[in-house]
Amino acid sequence: MRYFIWGLFWIGVYLGLALFPCLILLYGTMPGGYGFWWDFSMALGFAATSMMALMFFLTARFKRAALPFGVDIIYYFHKHISLLFFLFAAAHAVILLSTEPVVWEMLRPSQINRYMAAGIVSFVLLGLIVFSSLWRKQLQIHYDNWRLIHAFLAVAAFILALVHIEGVGYYIATPAKRIIWGTIMGCWLLLLLYVRIIKPVALLSRPYKVRKIIPEKGNAYTLVIVPEQHQCIDFLPGQFVWLSMYHSPLSMKEHPFSISSAPEQKGELHFTIKELGDFTRRIKDTPKGQPVYIDGPYGAFTIDRHPSEHGYVFIAGGIGIAPIRSMLGSLAARGDSRTHILFFGGSTLEKLTFYEELNALKERLDLKTVYLLEHPPWDWQGESGFLDTGILKRHLPSHLKELKYFICGPVPMVQLAEKELHKIGVPLHHLHSELFDFV
Amino acid sequence: MRLLLAKILVVVTGVMILAVALVFAIFQNS
């Protein structure tokens, strides 16, 4: 309930900040109207700029604001809301161009001034951001390069939008509005400074180093890091961090990884990482002592937010087992006596990361494991294929509606699991998931 | 479910901003 109320509070803050510039326009003396469509278009332009500024707020990873939702959902929201504000910015331009011939005059090469040009370039940059983000994989843009381009374009588009508004100046002409608008712009620029400079610099003062790399089944490696002359972060089992390795945090080349060790394992952090891309392919060759910087912990995917349940059901696909290993390890370390169930899907038995460790864990924890293989051997006695209601009903107890479910893996697998669990009557608020490919 | 809530919030934000923009345009021209 506490998280629900905080969630509502932060949604209110977001809506308030998004609408604030528009509400300021309504305050005090207003200049004469230029007609409904002109003013409607201007309000959309202000709203789009305000939402653009809030993109930096959304991705600033303020722990208090992220806690009720989980950072994965905030990034998901960021992706979708950016489409909306791009539409508002486009509507601002289209309405003006289609209803006001004077705007065409202002855009003629001989007539155009710096603030109109700033507005046009800002809009073009926004288009590039949306295009490169939605089709990054198809365009084969490397993730690290894309992040740099994304950040550079976003900052440039935002500053140019501010130049555009300041230059037009029509609705912010009174002294009071200039002060308020100036304060808003100042706050946005400070936020930008915090996200891009202050926070990464702070991470430099808390370095970690690689202690060892452990090869695991399923083309994965466990990276073990230890803090250098400072306390290790406190985290809840199942949470994740943003990890910078081979580069300074200022370079923005960081990647989100779940912590796969339990918090009870003091003084070190484990990350179990599958070889999937350029960064992850380098993990196995990382030398001992390599500096690492971490920003976190983040994430709402943890049993510790639901401590007094009848028991937990974990559903993992592939390397989605990493945060679940952290939670199971934590339950075992605490001597938990409840019954828990793990559904773990993978292509073959040989590729199930932590297979032996999970089986060994049954000595210390009342854990039932159900392995689902896409390509089972001919003599396989267990389950195969994808999770469905039949498999769930065979292994879940009769009080299945009272249990809490933690699902982690690729998005289609998470969505399938949620759908199948809902079909057998599990309430939606009992389902907790972590999206792996949210960036 | 969380994805659905995020989508609902996107729609709610959009509707509220459109509403304020409409109110502004109506006030300006009334």
Written overview of the protein:
The complex is a heterodimer of chains A (439) and B (30). Chain A has 439 residues and is of the alpha/beta class. Chain A is 47% helix and 17% strand. Chain A has 13 helices and 12 strands. Chain A has helices at residues 2-26, 36-58, 63-66, 71-99, 101-106, 114-134, 143-168, 175-204, 278-281, 321-333, 355-361, 389-395, 411-423; strands at 208-216, 220-227, 240-245, 254-258, 269-274, 291-298, 312-317, 340-346, 367-373, 383-384, 404-409, 431-435. The mean pLDDT of chain A is 88. By secondary structure, chain B is an all-alpha fold. Chain B has one domain (1-30). Chain B is rod-shaped and about 45 Å long. The model of chain B has no long low-confidence stretch (mean pLDDT 84). Chain A binds chain B through residues 11, 14-15, 18-19, 22-23, 25-26, 30, 32-37, 39-40, 42-44, 47, 51, 69-70, 73, 76-77, 80-81, 84, 88, 415, 418, 428-429, 431, 433, 435, and chain B through 1-3, 5-7, 9-10, 12-14, 16-17, 20-29.
Layout of strands and helices, then pairs:
The complex is a heterodimer of chains A (439) and B (30).
Chain A: H1 2-26, H2 36-58, H3 63-66, H4 71-99, H5 101-106, H6 114-134, H7 143-168, H8 175-204, E1 208-216, E2 220-227, E3 240-245, E4 254-258, E5 269-274, H9 278-281, E6 291-298, E7 312-317, H10 321-333, E8 340-346, H11 355-361, E9 367-373, E10 383-384, H12 389-395, E11 404-409, H13 411-423, E12 431-435
Parallel strand pairs in A: 7-8, 7-11, 8-9, 9-10, 11-12
Antiparallel strand pairs in A: 1-2, 1-6, 2-5, 3-4, 3-6
Helix pairs in contact in A: 1-2, 2-4, 2-7, 2-8, 4-6, 6-7
Chain B: H1 2-28
Short overview:
With 439 residues, chain A is α/β, with parallel strands linked by helices. Chain A is 47% helix and 17% strand. Chain B has one domain (1-30).
Q: What is the strand content of chain A?
A: 15-25%
* SS element count, helices of chain A: 13
The backbone outline of chain B, from C-alpha atoms, is rod-shaped
CATH third-tier fold name of the largest domain in chain A: Four Helix Bundle (Hemerythrin (Met), subunit A)
| Mean pLDDT across residues of chain A | 88
Strand content of chain B: under 5%
Q: How many individual helices of chain B? A: 1
